[in-house]
Write a structure and sequence with these properties.
homodimer, alpha+beta, 7-stranded antiparallel sheet, 18 strands
Chain lengths: ~475, ~475
């Protein structure tokens, strides 16, 4: 008879977490864990030991204390919509899902902010604000299923970022559980704050490696009452890029300027396989422009200015959408690119480089050359006015060794070119697991060391989201 | 005969700095040091040993290495316009003035940014940008003599902050010399960046205790082509505050909403002693509103909306200024408050609290009560829409012991009230020397400890701007 008196570390932790959250919210069975080992990054899926779904900040803090004591890795998880692997439990251990921290705590209309827990679906928060006449302008395209905690952790961008900035500019204050289990509010719910170091922005974009965000206070703004979309078709990418530069140098402040290059246009129209506006011979490139204003006159003025610029740079044709139906039609192709990239046995390697706008055209051409030289199909599209184009390498779902190696070589060359030309390896998707090998290419030794020291300071045992960013 | 073979530490450091910068830029004589031991904080003036004026980032780095080796305090100094003592050399040692780092390195009109050294006068940079059709919207009132390095170090605000935010929102990238002499660029010159921790914002507002800013890359925006100022006189502060709240809840996005309370109004009009608009019986409070737009029609629309709100909240009279001359007249009183506070044997204790707008009226009334209970004269004015009011305690230039104690008691009560009501002790002037004793009132233990640990990490010998913030 063998006496089983050695209880595994995992069992001890699971028992402790059950003591904290109740058995209903601690899971160890394969069925319950299913889906929590992956996000939207390639087809990666990692095994792990325990899934926990705390319901309060106190529970999150207690979980961190236990996991610190047992040196068990904790991977925080919000909507799981990330594409760089930030939510993947690469070192097993515990996945901490914030999905039950899903309360909209309140909105303050006079002070112009909303307080939400980090597991609130972004679109739910936006709707809550808009029903009260306020506007969160930088919801990412994933708003329907991403959560605010993930948006903040990744400093998510939006198609509106060229006018409104990114998530970071709306975060007034955060409740964060530090890796050691301490809880702090990083800022205050005021418009202006010059009191102490800006810890709020240290946590924004830190991808869950410095702390677990449990509450977010977002600044809200008035929503423009009038808006219009323009879809311009161009014969050449160069013309479209020149139009974008001219828009930037004008007085226009469009709320979106989205570029769809020929490769993405062809792939997505084939995928949709239906009549689409300005998908016709002679047009290789789409430029989508959204304009907003508080008055009809202001909007008309902007439309005229935008129309003149697009015509001057020889747009083949320009469509205008004012009704919801017209806009939906115009934006359909742009918003279907993601699905097209994952259809018909395909997946994609996310590339989210941000370059100075003045380098954008050259950057796209260089990426095309690099991809072609490795025989990799490519889809280029995205936030052109910000210089933040997604230049996705298209892969077969069952990637072979040669394809994997080709992709790795192409990525390396693309990142190297972008960095040499003043770009950064992520504009809005973060570093996560996928890009961390390129951090030494991006940053100087002292810079990287400082980031490592900050991580070490906050997470001395290295248990929070290990294997990411650094 | 005494052999003087012990060279003082100060002499060794001065010699080393001379080796770095040349004798022309290292000073130890009282005449040369005059004025560098003070800024605009009360009448504080501290003795120190060596003044150095490096001309390049390499010189700044070498200075830091030397001072680290000798454990000599270094107090960085830009324009010396601070009012919380951030540039005061409280532990003697070296004052490092960035005044020779005064080059405008370049402006990139397509990418919309400007690169300047930290010793550039803010107004010079603004002029340079505007000549090229670009706009830095958040220059502080001190722009004529403050320098960009100081603006960034303090996260300076502006009367335009209610529309445009503070300095932090325009900083894309910084060149920083760390206390140990390492040099890093904190970010990149791109619009969107989700690559690694946000070290840029860690240095913005860190008040020269984490590193010395040597270059700044500022994002620029298009400048609205039309603007107008409105000056409204109110019979009561409460009406004015209600009007401010209504402006916030409207679709207006004014570029300034400045409040001048009765105490500041009376003191400044007496100081100016000339006919001033809306300084008349029945009016106790001024509200100045600035509106900007890219079109005449948009501006007219905003003016109508603003006028309606001001009338609804029973403004006694409303003046409109469109020409430079009209505007100057309307803004004269507001911009003379600082001079009035330092005239006729007066000085002031800066109070720069920022509260939620919804608490503003109650906050002002409470400060008035506290000041009155200690017999302290008061001047309340400033950035009302941001909830960032300057509620200055007026002191005699030759402050007696009783007055000093009274002021200290009043400050303590005011800070305590503000913090209890969701406010912060600085909206835009920083902590510096003057407010650091209140940091434990503002922050929780773990929060304060984290800031201290970050300071310790970056400046292990505690030589950079010691005695400030923490």
């Amino acid at each position: 008879m063998i006496i089983d008196n050695v209880i595994s570390r995992e069992k001890q932790v699971a028992d402790a977490l059950t003591g904290i959250c109740g058995g209903k919210y601690v899971f160890t069975g394969a069925d319950d864990l299913y889906g929590y080992g992956k996000d939207q990054t390639l087809d990666l899926d990692f095994p792990f030991d325990i899934l926990v779904k705390p319901g309060t900040v106190e529970e999150v803090a207690a979980i961190m204390e236990v996991c610190n004591k047992h040196r068990v890795p904790v991977t925080p998880r919000a909507g799981g919509s990330g594409v760089t692997g930030g939510a993947l439990p690469v070192n097993r251990g515990v996945v901490l899902s914030v999905e039950r921290l899903n309360r909209i705590i309140g909105i303050n209309e006079t002070d112009g902010y909303i307080i939400v827990e980090s597991g609130v679906i972004t679109a739910d928060m936006c709707r809550h604000a808009e029903e009260r006449g306020l506007y969160f302008p930088v919801a990412p395209s994933s708003a329907g299923y991403s959560m605010v905690g993930g948006n903040v952790a990744e400093n998510a961008g939006s198609i509106n970022s060229c006018r409104y900035g990114t998530t970071s500019q709306y975060v007034m204050n955060l409740e964060v559980v530090l890796p050691t289990g301490e809880v702090i509010w990083t800022g205050a719910n005021v418009s202006k704050n010059a009191t102490g170091f800006n810890l709020t922005q240290l946590f924004v974009g830190s991808e869950g490696v410095l702390g677990i965000i449990t509450k977010v206070v977002y600044r809200l703004v008035p929503k423009p009452t009038h808006d219009v979309s323009l879809l311009a078709g161009f014969a050449s990418l160069e013309d479209a890029c020149n139009a974008i530069t001219a828009i930037r140098r004008s007085a226009l402040q469009p709320s979106a300027v989205e570029l769809v290059c020929e490769n993405a246009l062809r792939m997505t129209s084939a995928y949709l396989n239906e009549p689409l506006p300005l998908v016709e011979e002679g047009i290789t490139t789409h430029l989508l422009v959204n304009l907003q204003d508080f008055t009809e006159e202001g909007l008309m003025h902007s439309m005229e200015l935008a129309g003149n610029i697009l015509e001057q740079y020889t747009a083949w044709n320009i469509l205008t959408g004012t009704t919801a139906q017209e806009k939906e039609k115009m934006w359909k192709l742009r918003f279907s690119i993601g699905s097209a990239l994952m259809s018909e046995g395909r997946k994609y390697r996310d590339i989210d480089i941000s370059v100075p706008l003045s380098s954008l055209y050259r950057y796209i051409r260089r990426v095309e050359e690099i991809a072609a030289s490795h025989g990799m199909p490519l889809a280029c599209f995205g936030h052109a006015l910000d210089g933040n184009l997604h230049t996705m390498l298209v892969l077969n779902e069952d990637t072979g060794e040669e394809e994997t190696e080709n992709a790795a070589r192409a990525v390396n060359e693309i990142y190297s070119y972008a960095i040499d030309n003043g770009g950064v390896i992520s504009g809005e998707h973060g570093i996560g697991l996928l890009q961390k090998e390129f951090m030494p290419m991006q940053f100087s030794g002292p810079h990287l060391q400082l980031m490592q020291q900050i991580k070490q300071l906050l997470d001395p045992n290295g248990i929070l989201n290990p294997g990411k960013v650094l």
